[in-house]
Structure formats: structure tokens, C-alpha cells
Amino acid sequence: MTKVLLLQDVDYDKKKGEVINVRSGFARNYLFPRGYAIIATKQALKRQVELQKERQKQAAVDRQEAEAMVGQLNGVTFETHVKVDPEGHMYGSVSVLDIIALVKQQTGVELERRMIILKHALKATGAHEIQLRLKEDVTAAIHVKIIPEEHPTAV
User: 2 forms bridges with which residues in the sheet?
Assistant: First the structure.
């Protein structure tokens, strides 16, 4: 295990300015090359207070942005049309990327993949509630209504 000081937020639970223990390979192969962390030496720990103050300022800004997003998105229904076979089964599915595109197209709000809590792609028509976890653990819910396209009748 390697003790590191985070220079940037990593995921939702590891915040800038924290000292955490991580596996050596994760630090060496992911955190260090991307500039997300440095080894927690005595000199590095002197920067910790400064980093935590910056993090608190950023957290306040992120929370305001997230709450503004909640105001735009919470409870909104997004509709998408999909092709279905004669029995009503969808061809393909509606994925996280499709939901991101729907939200951006209809509201102009840009979401990140990790903000959408979806275990599996949506593979059934009808209404689905999708939970969102925005920055600073602000949550929202949107509705995605999957509507089957009409089949042309055979003549």
C-alpha cells in the first residue's frame, strides 16, 4: 500500500486534499501519470491544507451547479422512439450514452456517464425512472419514455 495526497478529485468519494492509502499499482499506473496524486511525504503534506481550502471553494461552486441542474432535470420526462419487431420487442436498447444525448438535445444540459445510475441498458418500451447522482452527492430523477415506432402495414 502507498500513502498518497490527492491533487484532484477521484470518483465521488475521494476528494482533493485527502491522504489515502492505495495499492502501489493503482498509484503508479493511474494516479501518478494523470497528475491526480503525489506520494504523501512531509513536504507534500504541507500542501494539504491549501488543497483542502481549494476543494471547499470548488465544492461550493459544484453544489450550486448541481442544484441548478436539478431544477432543470428533476421529474422531467424525455421521450425517444425506437424500432420494434412485430411482437413489440426492441431492436437494440437505450444506453447511458443515448440518455446523455436525449438530455442534451432536449434541455441543453450536459451530463457525464458516471452521473447516470443505470445497471443495464433499457431494453423494454414504456416509462422508466432514471436516478442521477450529480456532483457533491446531489441527486435527481428523470423519466425516459421509450415509444415504439409505428410499423407500416403490409399490403
Answer: 22
Within 13 Å, how many C-alpha atoms sit on residue 79's CB side?
4
Query: Is domain 70-148 given the CATH code 3.20.20.70 in the classification?
Result: no
Stretch(es) of the chain classified as CATH 3.40.5.10: 2-46
Sheet holding 2-6, edge to edge: 19-22, 2-6, 37-39
CA dihedral over 52, 57, 59, 62, signed as positive or negative: negative
pLDDT tier at 104, thresholds 50, 70, 90 = very high
Instruction: Give me the CATH code for the 2-46 domain, please.
Output: 3.40.5.10
Task: Quote the pTM value.
Answer: 0.72
Report the half-sphere exposure of 101 (CA within 13 A, side-chain side).
6
How far apart, in whole angstroms, are the C-alpha atoms of residue 133 and residue 81? 25
The per-residue DSSP string of 30-44 comes to IIHHHTSEEE--HHH
Mean local confidence (pLDDT), 135-144 = 89
d(CA 36, CA 15): 10
